[in-house]
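Input.
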Amino acid sequence: MRGSPLAYLREAAKADRRPGAVQLARFYPSWRRYLRSGSSPLEERVPWVTFGAFGLLRSRVGSGTRVFEYGAGGSSLFFLDRGADLVSVEHDEQWARATAAAAGGADWDLRLRPPDPGGDGYPSQKAAGSFRDYATAIDGLGEFDLVVVDGRARNHCIAEALDHVAPGGAMLVDNTERRRYRHGVGLLDARGWPRREYAGPGPFNSWFWSTTVWFRPTAP
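Output.
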């Protein structure tokens, strides 16, 4: 049943939000291929977001695009392959090393910011300690054409990165269907920036989820 049309339709029926019938039909072959491949985001060199958001990234990221991402991985390789000017922050040393090795010697700014076991504030639900250094790693780096929030302490990362999205730029937040990210989503919505939710299937997951992108206007 893994990757079968019936399993796909069952997941679509269970999803709170999903793309239209035409998109569902278009996404199915990719969904099945990734599920059956047994590969990983690093091996495939792709971001782990929904297919709709993946298509947006293909259209927006190219040579010289300034990108900051919370959470390194397949997305890092994807951005580097497209010639982006990339800064990545990662909390896990082993994963940072694996990503750097998969990048094959590519030159980019990969920052390791592990949680502080004795620090206060900036918590993450899935890891102990304070993620203050992780969330604030974007400070002093100016504005970016794209900020990707797909790592730890996402509400705090969103708050720290809001003023680092360039006019005409965008912020992508993955897994926005999760209740624990409502605060960060609310901060973005309060800016009044246009948003688009890309709900549906994506690579490697047998279930559907949501990736949402907010677009900062070019003028106030």
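The beta strands are 66-70, 85-90, 109-112, 144-149, 165-174, 195-200, 209-215.
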